Amino acid sequence: NLVILDRIENPAAIAELKAINPKVTVTFYPYDVTVPLAETKKLLTTVFAQLKTVDLLINGAGILDDHQIERTIAVNFTGLVNTTTAILEFWDKRKGGPGGVIANICSVTGFNAIYQVPVYSASKAAVVSFTSSLAV
C-alpha cells in the first residue's frame, strides 16, 4: 500500500506510480500539513482504519519563501511535528502499536544556514533537531 497525503491531487502521478507495480494499491487523501493536530489525527484514524498498519511516514512537505514567515514555519516545521506526533499515537509500542519508521526530508540548510533565506534555514534546522531528538 502507498498512501499519499497532499494538498493537490495529481492523477497522472498516481497512475504512474500504479503502473510501476500494479500489485501496490495507491491511495490519495487531501491533506494540508498546516491543519491543527486534531485534524491530522482524524485523517490518520481514517487511513489506519482502511489499512490497519502503516510502516513508513515520509514527511516531505516544504516551501522556500522567507517573505511568508508564519507559513514557512507552519509547513516546514510545525506541520512535520504535528504529522509525526499524530502517527506516533498509532505506532506506540507501549500501547500495543507496531512501531514504524519516520523519514523527515530536510535540506542542507538545516546544517549550514544560507544567509539569504534565514527563516527557511531555521525551519530546516528545527527539523534536524526534532528528528535527532526523536532518534534518541
Largest sheet: 2 strands, parallel
Extended strand count:
4
Spatial order of the strands in the main sheet?
1-2
> If you average the pLDDT, what whole number results?
95
Helix content range of the residues, please?
Answer: 40-55%
Topology:
Layout: E1 2-6, H1 11-20, E2 26-30, H2 37-51, E3 56-59, H3 69-91, E4 101-104, H4 118-135
Parallel strand pairs: 1-2, 3-4
Protein name: Alcohol dehydrogenase
Organism: Drosophila sulfurigaster
Family: Belongs to the short-chain dehydrogenases/reductases (SDR) family.
Give an overview in words:
This protein has 136 residues and is α/β, with parallel strands linked by helices. The chain has a domain at 53-135: NAD(P)-binding Rossmann-like Domain (Rossmann fold). It contains 4 helices and 4 strands, in the order E-H-E-H-E-H-E-H. Helix 2 crosses helix 3 (69-91) and helix 3 (69-91) packs parallel to helix 4 (118-135). The longest helix is centred in the middle third of the chain and has 23 residues, at 69-91.
